[in-house]
Amino acid sequence: MTVTTLDPRTAFVVIDLQQGIAGIPAAAPLVAPLVANAARLADAFRAADLPVVLVNVTGGAPGRTERPRPASPRDESWADLLPELHPDAEGTLHVTKQTWGAFHSTDLDARLRDAGVTQIVLAGIATSAGVESTARAAHEHGYNVTVATDAVGDMDPVNHEHSLTRVFPRLGETGTSDEILDLLAATAR
């Protein structure tokens, strides 16, 4: 299903588009197109005076996993948001998380509710991890959820496709950046 509507108070939430993740060699082919689409959406949401939330990750959830976590060294710029997203733009909300999802142990829900937000549009990386975890939690918190299909990416194409075609349609709606921008322009009229 394609995206059908945007609520009057919709927020644009961008997951983990930061220096350290964008610099992972396996992520490099994904980053440029999805960042370009995320930047277009962020600019349009700001122009419509709607919230833009940029989320970065600085840690990981504790606990054992079968698949080891990457042990790459992290310099002080690892968590810096990508400049194309204009992280210093007036009114931009910042959330730092320690787990995959942006709602767990953060003030994201409270900040969205304070702003009267009823819907979120999601973008970011990785589709099957941070984006999907955030979409699931948003759905559970009662938000209408939309995923910008050309503004998300995953280093595992099978997981990416599974999230887009199997998971997200059960949590909300999906649409391209252009479809979302068209709805945003129609809503602003």
Question: Can you characterise this structure?
Answer:
- The protein has 189 residues and is α/β, with parallel strands linked by helices.
- The protein has a single domain, classed as 3-Layer(aba) Sandwich (Rossmann fold), CATH 3.40.50.
- The protein is built from 6 helices and 6 strands.
- Strands 3-2-1-4-5-6 form a 6-stranded parallel β-sheet.
- Helix 2 runs parallel beside helix 6.
- It is globular, with a radius of gyration of 15 Å.
- The two termini are 24 Å apart.
- The relative contact order is 0.22.
Helix content percent band:
25-40%
> Can you give the mean pLDDT?
93
The first-level CATH class is given as Alpha Beta
Tell the overall outline: globular
Order of helices and strands: EHHEEHEHEHEH
How many strands? 6
- According to CATH, the homologous superfamily is Isochorismatase-like
SS element count, helices: 6
Q: Low-confidence stretches at least 5 residues in length (pLDDT < 50)?
A: none
CATH architecture assignment? 3-Layer(aba) Sandwich
Question: The CATH topology, please?
Answer: Rossmann fold
Structural class: alpha/beta
Using only CA atoms, what is the Rg?
15 Å
What portion of the residues fall into strands of 2 or more residues? 15-25%
Please summarize the sheet with the most strands: 6 strands, parallel
Distance between the termini: 24 Å
Widest β-sheet, arrangement of strands:
3-2-1-4-5-6
Structural domains: how many: 1
